[in-house]
Amino acid sequence: MGNRYWLLILLCCLGALPLGAQIPTFPKLEGREGLVVLIADARNGRLLGGVHTEEAFQSRYFPGSLFKIAIAVAWMQRGNATPQRQFTCVGNDSANPALPRCWLAKGHGRVKFVSAFANSCNLYFRHIAAKISHAEMIQAAQRLGMIGPSRFPGEPTAPAAVPQIDDQNLLGESFTTSPAQMLRLALTLATRGRLATPPFQLSGTRYRLLYRGLQECVRTGTAKGAWRKDFAISGKTGTVYPPGTRQRTVGWFVGFAPATHPRYAIVVLQPDATGSQAAITAGDILGRLM
Description:
This protein is an alpha+beta fold. It has a single domain, classed as 3-Layer(aba) Sandwich (Beta-lactamase). The protein contains eight helices and seven strands, in the order H-E-E-H-E-E-H-H-H-H-H-E-E-E-H. The strands form two sheets. The protein has a five-stranded antiparallel beta sheet, sandwiched between helices. Helix 2 packs across helix 5 (134-144).
């Protein structure tokens, strides 16, 4: 099937069908075992369609570096986040070598928030997380939609357990989350908190750095495979191991487009991949939608 046919099927998804209804499929993506894609209208939060949407609640993985969004929001809610805040990442924590290293073995060098966010610097975020209580980070994750009900049709009613974050697992391996919950995160970010459940304020100068980081992540960072010359995409990647194994990775991408006045929110969960590879899939889909 050619690209035009796939685009036609994709556009048919714009009927805002609820999850669990007969949603049109993506022929070129349906064959990818385990891949989950969810797309929503960023203006009103309606589900538009996706790939393997029946797995939206059943698939559960660590958020990985997507948890950096919650750390950032908790930090910014304190009101003292500044673009000048710097940290030198050398790849490991020289004060405590037993702590997990940064994913980039050689380190990111001297970085400020936007660059650290765009390139997912683990040590920078451990540095700012040290100034925030675990309760504040959990509260931020809950308000963003990572923890708790996603409020989409078809979601199981069982309450989600609230994780206890410890110092060894600050960066997203203390709890699991579903693609549906991550779509709520994408909608929360796209609407500056308006479509959070309940709504809260993510607009204004306090959160400007976060939105610069989300856009820079796609422009030059770990999600640059999603970049499109015709419109700007904002988002964040995450690369995680499935719970209970370290044999293969799973890639996350959460984002929205266009970066200003968003029309679509998207989450991609891609098995046997990295977050950067999930970003490529998201960019291809958004490029055809726009």
